[in-house]
Amino acid sequence: QLQLVESGGGLVQSGGSLRLSCAASGSNLDRYAVAWFRQAPGKGLEWVSNSNSGGDTTYYADSVKGRFTISRDNAKNTLYLQMNSLKPDDTAVYYCTKARERVGVRAAGGYDYWGQGTQVTVSS
After folding, report:
1. What is the DSSP string of 7-76?
2. C-alpha closest to that of 19 among 106, 99, 78, 89
3. How many CA atoms, within 13 angstroms, populate the side-chain half-sphere of residue 63?
4. pLDDT tens-digit profile of 24-60?
């Protein structure tokens, strides 16, 4: 059974950076797209970014484009999210997830395994 474990969250000042990691175990991710979602306090789940199985095609929500970078190391079975120029609006619990197919989608229903989440808090 696939397990996803996020790490790297924390408290950072506005304008700062964090790098989230998502380590997979129990199964390989290399044949599937992966994504990051987030959920801010009192709000619904929001798609942030996804990468196809090969890592050569990536997509970003407009709210993070140019500031966040998704990447994956299939040899290490690990997914990353580099977050730069962080804003207070980026405060949320961030989740990594595995898609059902090689190509990701923006809807949460397209993903079947989820990590437990890591808290990111950006202070102003």
Report:
1. E--EEEETT--EEEEEEEESS--TTS-EEEEEE-TTS-EEEEEEE-TTSS-EEE-TTTTTTEEEEEETTT
2. 78
3. 12
4. 999 999 999 999 999 999 999 999 999 999 889 999 9
